[in-house]
Amino acid sequence: MLNSKHIDQLRRIVGKENILTSKEELLVYSYDATNMWQHLPEVVVLPSNVEQISAILKLANENLIPVTPRGGGTNVSGGSIPIKGGIVLCTTRMDRIIDINKTNLNARVEPGVVLQDFQAALAEEGLFFPPDPQSFSGCTMGGVVAENSAGPSCLKYGVAKQYVLGLEVVLADGTTMKLGGLTPKNRTGYELSMLFTGSEGTLGVISKITLRMLPAPKATRTIVAVISDVAVAGETVTEIIASSVLPSKVEFVDNWTFEKFRGLLPDEILDKSQVILLIQVDGLPETVDAETQQVVALCKSRAGEVRVAEDQAETDRYWQARAAHFSDISSRAHTIINEDICVPRDKIAEFIKLGQESAKKYDVPISFAGHVGDGNFHPVVLTDSRDKEHYQRSLKCVEEIIEIALSLGGVLSGEHGIGLEKQRFLKKAMDPAAIEIMKKIKDVLDPNHILNPGKIWEETSDEE
Ligand SMILES: Cc1cc2nc3c(=O)[nH]c(=O)nc-3n(C[C@H](O)[C@H](O)[C@H](O)COP(=O)(O)OP(=O)(O)OC[C@H]3O[C@@H](n4cnc5c(N)ncnc54)[C@H](O)[C@@H]3O)c2cc1C
What is the CATH number of the domain that holds 147? Predict the structure, then answer.
């Protein structure tokens, strides 16, 4: 248990300006971006360097105090909720881009660097880090690696793990460990940096990250297709992916959030349509022209309207409207349940059809959006947790949608992770032997289970 003596020790480690203890301050760190959980930490510490992280963890381990690592707190799986109280270790004051090396095509960052700042710094060098969670203005690089985050551009370029070259990690007992290196190839022992990538703060605190970069594409073009029927939109995506074009992004927005596109697309078409597909192709200008024509031709047979953005201003408006989806849909109900599943691409249309039938059966409103080019959907059920009966029906619908995704060969989470949200489904989605191995890894790295306790396989009761 944390007591005042521990708080004094923490104050000595990070300095009094880097520790938060008032109720108002703690409240801020009791949430993430879900609206399903909240739990107050007892203290928040904001370390400035790896030595401080190490000292905090050593103290916590010796006194069995839970520690929840946190970056921007934008995750949507309950991952950074300090569900067992204790310490929130927030990395936002470690926000230095250490270097960007154009020759080596790599960069080193501290975990608290905000993704948008990193992307802006890279753009000045003509470089590109593709993973682009739509929370880019708030999420941190530590969070991106700890969640193995993705986003629209991952269709062509892959997810965060494909860019991690090396990590510095602090283990639960305070030991600091350097993994990987600066080179794109490295076959030295087990690939331990992958163990921490996507580990959701349960195995160690990431204190430094080395990432692989790409040269920024020379040209991009955005194509917008407005389609009257959800299932037809799904078929269109399957067909685009099966053609020889690999767009950098294929995003799906349903009519719950069409308001954001008013003024950009004709009202009469929007009024009788269900889906907007936002597609981006990139590469050399000549290739981009040819691929744009090919995608437009594929969409034309099925869409009421197909537009190619004429300039950067128009392009930005479409992508800003897409990025606003989560906040827009969140404002339409007291409570939303935001899911994250991924199905094989040839099952996209079937998944949407079955998902809609499920929402009808449970009589709950549902919105479908997501990175559909990867088969990655974020079905959002709109509900109200104060209305117990509606909320229970919504949870049942979500459960059925997850079952549908799994039965189609899909996975439990495409990019948001397990956290608190998905742990009750883990046994259905993962081989029991693999769950046992994960538990053993945890026991080796964090024998006292102080790091982000209650997450992934450690089922937490609903009352907490
Ligand atoms: C509007 C919106 C849009 C989103 N869009 C996407 C999307 O397109 N794709 C996507 O993949 N996700 C998306 N997300 C989810 C989320 O933003 C990402 O998972 C993001 O990378 C989390 O970063 P963060 O800094 O906010 O991490 P946090 O939320 O603070 O933490 C996330 C997890 O990582 C752990 N963690 C954080 N920092 C460290 C560290 N230094 N060491 C060890 N563990 C750590 C935490 O304990 C927690 O388990 C979205 C969220 C929102 C709200």
Answer: 3.30.465.10
Residue 253 falls within a domain, yes or no?
yes
Euclidean distance between CA atoms 181 and 97, whole angstroms: 17
**Model pTM?**
0.96
For 191-223, what is each residue's pLDDT tens digit? 999 999 999 999 999 999 999 999 999 999 999
Ligand 1 in contact with 112 (CB < 6 A)? no
Choosing from 260, 289, 323, the residue where a domain stops is 323
> Ligand 1 centroid vs 148 CA: distance in angstroms?
9
Strands 164-170 and 176-180: antiparallel
Q: In whole angstroms, give the CA distance from residue 199 to residue 206.
A: 10
> For tokens 């360097």, what's the residue?
49
CA 416 to chain centre: 4
Residue with tokens 């989605």: 429
Query: Ligand 1 atom closest to Cα of 419?
Result: 49
Distance CA 318, CA 213 (A): 26
Does residue 328 have its Cβ closer than 6 Å to ligand 1? no
State whether the beta carbon of 453 lies less than 6 angstroms from ligand 1.
no
Ligand 1 proximity of 150 Cβ (cutoff 6 Å): yes
